[in-house]
Design a protein that fits this description.
The chain is of the alpha+beta class. 37% of the residues lie in helices and 18% in strands.
Length: 354
Amino acid sequence: MNPQANSTILSFEALRDFIEAALSSQGLPQADAYKVATLMAEADMQGSDGHGVIRLPMYIKRIQAGGINKNPVIKVVHERAAMAVVDGDNGMGHLVVSHAVDLAIEKARQCGVAWVSTRFSNHAGPASLYARKPLQHDMLGLYFAVGNANHLPPWGGMDMLLSTNPIAAGIPTADEPPVVLDMATTVAAYGKVKAKAKRGEMMPEGWMIDRQGKPLTDPKRAEEGFLLPIGEHKGYGLALIVGLLAGTLGGAAMGREVVDFNADHVTVTNTGQAILVIDLSAFGDPAVFKHAVDALVKDIRGSEKLPGVDRIWLPGEQSHERRQRYQSGGIPIVNALVTELQSLARELGIAPLI
């Protein structure tokens, strides 16, 4: 489906400035509001529309209800040379994770590799934003997170004890677009379910099932069922391991402790994320690695295709092309969401989006 159908086209700057104004109106310091707004607008610019401005009304509700700390003291609570645990003091997740990634880059520059976990963080948008950040330093990033609501039962079970628990990886290249994988451990991220509902679209079979095990395709009935893991039992196992690494290891919520931030705007979520950063120079000349990745990318893209396949894509290529297209031509925001944001602007007493 054409993403610009039934949509309003907005510039990156207009979207960022609106989000910043909304967050500032609720008491976030201007620098923090700007940083969060930039990351949210970048999510929409790369096509991660389930994690961009669509989340703003929910963020505002949590801030107004006291569920998010507007002035957190983000600090390191455990540390060694190549690792740290960052306590986000229940601040906006975008701020907490950005702090963790910057710290991991600094440590990797000294040690070659670094792992930084977060606790008492919050929803932080698409995982790829943070896996990509080390690329500009000739480093690669691996990112793990516990989702902010449980939508996945253990394989064969009914109790939703796991979340989408995403994984992202950013691999630097020389001349090709960077290889960036961003995937939920469920067939679809729950943000995509929310985006489908906002656009008035149905979900394909295979995303969700109801409690009788039958396909659930209406996103407005999502609460009646649960997401399916990728690869059946393998995806369930992967979601568990990611949750243990991103949540339990750093002292963050996991399992029944996870708070559904879609329904509960008050309770502290204690969301956990983790970033692993590797400095390419610890393995030799970064240019050699990046050119080797380029060669592999070209080989894969140029390999023989099945009948009817026009192109073989590498992870991150489509979002890279979308980012370039939206940067010059504007970002499509579905009209139903624009209407909601216009109403939000009136409630907050800020300038309208358009």
